[in-house]
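Whiteboard transcription, Tuesday session. T.W. wrote the C-alpha cells on the left side:
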C-alpha cells in the first residue's frame, strides 16, 4: 500500500505530533508499505526533498507563520500535483495545527483520507485571543472532519 503522510511539521523538528508522525511512518514502512511524507519547510521558503531515517520527505514552502502555524494557500495546488503524480492509496493527515491537513483533505479528491487528531482542545486558559482563534479554526475545520474518510484520535482523552 502507498501511504502519503501529511503533517505540518516533521523531523528533525521536535514535538509530540512530529514524533508520532515519524514513528507511525517508520512502523508502516516496516510492515511493507511505501510511505512518503509531505510537510512544511520550517527552515526556508522553498520546496525541498530529502530522506530522513529511510523516509522520503517533501517540504513545501511556507508563505508565513501565524501562531506557530505554517500557512501557504498554494499548498492545495502543490498537494494536488503530488497526489496525481504519486497516486497514494491513502492520505494520513495530522492535525490540529491548522491548514496543512485541511489542504491535504481538500486536495485529496477520491483518495481515502484518514485525519489523525492530536489535541482535545486548542483553547488555552488565560489567552482570550488564542481561544477566539481556536473557536474560529474549530468552525473552519468542520469541512475537513466531514470529508475525511476516517478520523483517528491519538488517545482516549482526545477522542
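and on the right, the sequence the group agreed on:
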Amino acid at each position: 500500500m502507498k501511504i502519503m503522510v501529511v503533517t505540518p511539521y516533521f523531523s528533525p523538528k521536535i514535538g509530540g505530533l512530529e514524533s508520532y508522525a515519524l514513528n507511525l511512518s517508520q512502523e508502516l514502512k516496516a510492515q511493507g508499505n511505501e510511505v512518503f511524507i509531505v510537510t512544511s519547510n520550517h527552515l526556508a521558503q522553498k520546496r525541498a526533498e530529502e530522506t530522513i531515517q529511510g523516509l522520503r520527505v517533501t517540504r513545501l514552502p511556507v508563505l508565513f507563520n501565524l501562531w506557530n502555524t505554517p500557512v501557504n494557500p498554494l499548498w492545495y495546488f502543490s498537494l494536488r500535483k503530488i497526489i496525481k503524480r504519486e497516486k497514494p492509496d491513502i492520505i494520513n493527515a495530522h492535525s490540529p495545527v491548522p491548514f496543512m491537513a485541511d489542504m491535504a483533505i481538500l486536495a485529496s479528491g477520491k483518495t481515502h483520507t484518514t485525519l489523525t487528531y492530536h489535541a482535545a482542545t486548542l483553547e488555552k486558559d488565560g489567552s482570550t485571543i488564542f481561544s477566539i482563534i481556536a473557536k474560529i479554526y474549530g468552525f473552519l475545520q468542520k469541512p475537513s472532519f466531514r470529508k475525511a474518510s476516517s478520523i483517528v484520535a491519538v488517545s482516549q482523552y482526545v477522542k
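Someone added at the bottom: Strands lie at 2-7, 34-40, 48-52, 55-60, 64-66, 69-71, 90-95, 112-117, 150-153.
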